[in-house]
Give the backbone structure.
Amino acid sequence: MAVMDENLLDSLLEAAAANHPNEFLAFLGGRIEDDTIVIDELVLVPFEASEDSAITDLMALYTRDIQGTFHSHPSGDPTPSDDDLLMFKRLGAVHAIAVPPYTRADVRFYDTAGRDITPLVGVEPVADDEANNHRGEPP
């Protein structure tokens, strides 16, 4: 089981919206308590960026309590890509993908194999028909 701090999730969604139409990536920190992954912090990792690319020190990630990742798919498709699945296997056990318009209803959580584990405990669950209506799809 995993739980995520709701305020952290809201902050990440705001950051994803602010970076739209570019993809946003963040590393999630936390700890394991009684077989539960508790995600309650954003892990900052040094990086260098230019207009064309960003480089991060991946070794710095392995010295932290990384429990997973959060990133956006501005395209609107929350399905993990092959590159996402590689990252999932390397960086923690819980991974979130958010899509526009970046509300709690627009986040899907995945395990290291890319299996959907939405919703996480600690995040308000949203009924499937409500989430679909939010995206303009029929219930």
Remarks:
- The first helix runs from residue 6 to 19.
- Confidence is low (pLDDT under 50) at residues 49-54, 124-139.
- Residues 105 and 127 are 9 Å apart (CA to CA).
- The chain has one domain: 2-134.
